[in-house]
Amino acid sequence: MKNNLGILFVCLFCQIVLGQNNSRKPLHGQVVNDFLAIESGYIMNVNANVRTFIGVGGLFDILARPKDTLLFSGLAFQSKKIVLTEKDCAEILFKVKLDLVNNELKEVVVHKELKVKSLDQNSQHYVDMQFEDDKQSTAKNTAMYSDQTIKYGTDFVRIFKDVKKLLSKKEDVQEDVVSDIAFVEYAKDNFTPDFYSKTLALKPDEIELFLMYCSNDAESKKYLKPDDKFQLMDFMVNKNKEFKKIAVSQK
What we know:
By secondary structure, the chain is an alpha/beta fold. Helices cover 38% and strands 15% of the residues. Strands 6-5-2-3-8 form a five-stranded mixed sheet, with helices on one face. Strands 4-1-7 form a three-stranded mixed sheet.
């Protein structure tokens, strides 16, 4: 009897899932940029648990319906999250403008010879001098806030709150977008590349998409403190299992 009920439950669950996906229609779209043709990357429909690749000319097809959340991610452009509207789904070709990642390298000048002028014998007073703003012979980081957990480190929670206060004055800015940025940047800065490539077995071009996927879960906002690093790690390991199960469709 229990086995029959289990089979019935699975069948009903499959019908519900299939019914939801049947209500979705193929969304034909294109990602564009003013300076460069984007022809690689991923697009994920979080609500439908499907993702697809960006093809030649930036074209893509994905099952979607109004109010679905699409995540765009790739190595060449900045990640973006869009909640679809009725108008978006009615478009013959839904276009999404993406900003490129700024990978400019700073100019480095190398001199063949370096002459060092020796200090005079009465130079000890220079060594004994302290900076006016610093009592430990190291300049303070006055531009970034720090909770002193890591000396002269950055308090991402404080930055997140301050940025949200500034952006809240603009009507066209959503709080969840700021939250996504805070989580993605914090996760990238606090875990080594090996954690993503080896522990989570993610490809380089999947990392940003995975972090955006995690940020879409309200649970991720609870782990933006240094003391919660192990909880954040456990959270991402569990979310990675879900991420790996998401179906991938290719044109």
